[in-house]
Design a protein that fits this description.
Length: about 375
């Protein structure tokens, strides 16, 4: 892909895809598809993260209002997923492009092998000109219906595929310095280089009864994308040419920009930071903070105060100090039981336990992601 071609992830919410009656709006879908087709015609790779399955399906299920129980939501999603894909497929095919459906659960991201497999699959689709359409597999999710929400999912997918840009479309035309529904003096922020506490405080409640995500979920998503080195944009879905203009820097909305001095997480560290699900904690003494953070050295058993949780070699764990402050996330070289047995060993005993590790100074655990990582 040449320098001016981008890999773009576009997230669109339920309220931006459905009519006032809660069913799929053909007009709204056609608008989105037309803009995606323009990007494809320009040579860009495009991936959609599309909400709307429950909103599209619940009336077909016989519900007059959006259902509140999990079984009804999942039943509605099973109808709506098919309706959405049928509509997307017909529209893209009419322009000569093929769409594909990818349904993801959180466990697909928390398992590193499945995470890598998902990336490989999506890469093949994008490289062959297909438009992947991603959603959480709402029909079978048993913990919560949402991945967090599709804002978060879109940011994680953008990191998964090494996207150049994440575009989140909503029913609000960007990020304001205050809630515009409550404060008539609220100003639209056209560029953001850092998610500050003030910006987080300005994030309001959900803006639509149809969708599930509010401004806070979008801020959390942009924290992930910015930490992953991905430029992002938030704009109003019904604005003419919003997607196309966002890619070329001409849209009205908020651009979340990456600075040259930002420390971006690579693919492995993104998985550790945002998807791994730490399995335990390693509590270290205050002297060890300098060793693992500033000197970037491996944690030695003598620096470990205690270990909580049960985990095996290779697990991701939280590293905390004695005050409970989280220092970061690390990958362990030993199981929790082995680490507990090693804490009080003398140096000669450690050498007999694992001489190679002592010589290479690569012992208990190595800090992979320092806190804060944005989320």
């Amino acid at each position: 892909m040449s320098q001016n071609k981008k890999r773009i992830v576009i997230k669109i919410g339920s309220s931006s895809l459905t009519s006032a009656h809660g069913e799929i709006s053909r007009r709204k879908l056609e608008k989105l598809v037309d803009e995606v087709v323009r990007l494809k015609d320009d040579g860009h790779e495009v991936l959609l993260v599309s909400s709307g399955a429950v909103a599209a399906g619940y009336r077909k299920l016989g519900c007059l209002e959006r259902p509140s129980t999990l079984p009804e939501k999942q039943a509605a999603a099973s109808i709506g997923q098919g309706l959405l894909m049928e509509s997307y497929s017909d529209l893209f095919l009419s322009h000569g492009y093929m769409g594909s459906q990818i349904l993801i659960t959180r466990s697909d991201f928390s398992d590193e092998n499945r995470y890598n497999n998902a990336r490989n699959t999506i890469n093949v689709l994008l490289e062959r000109g297909i438009i992947p359409i991603v959603n959480e597999n709402d029909t079978i999710t048993i913990d919560r219906l949402k991945f967090g929400d599709n804002d978060t999912l879109s940011a994680k997918v953008a990191g998964l595929v090494d996207a150049d840009q994440l575009i989140i479309l909503s029913d609000i035309d960007g990020l304001y310095d205050a809630d515009p529904r409550k404060n008539s003096d609220a100003k639209l922020l056209d560029k953001v280089h850092e998610i500050t506490p003030e910006i987080e405080a300005a994030a309001g409640d959900p803006g639509s009864a149809v969708g599930t995500g509010g401004m806070k979920s979008k801020i959390d998503a942009f924290k992930i994308s910015m930490a992953s080195g991905i430029a992002s944009f938030l704009g109003k879905a019904n604005t003419p040419n919003i997607v196309y203009d966002a890619v070329y820097g001409d849209a009205v909305g908020t651009y979340f920009e990456i600075t040259t001095d930002s420390e971006n997480l690579d693919q492995k560290k993104q998985w550790i930071a945002f998807n791994s699900g730490p399995e335990g904690k390693v509590i270290i003494d205050h002297r060890a903070k300098e060793t693992v953070v500033d000197m970037k050295q491996s944690l030695m058993p003598g620096n470990v105060h205690h270990v909580t949780g049960r985990f095996e070699k290779g697990a991701v764990v939280r590293i905390q100090d004695l005050d409970g402050e989280e220092i970061g996330l690390g990958v362990v070289n030993y199981s929790s039981e082995q680490m507990k047995n090693m804490i009080n060993l003398t140096e000669p005993e450690l050498e007999s336990y694992d001489k190679a590790a002592v010589e290479q100074k690569d012992f208990v655990c190595h800090l992979e992601v320092s806190m804060p990582v944005g989320v």
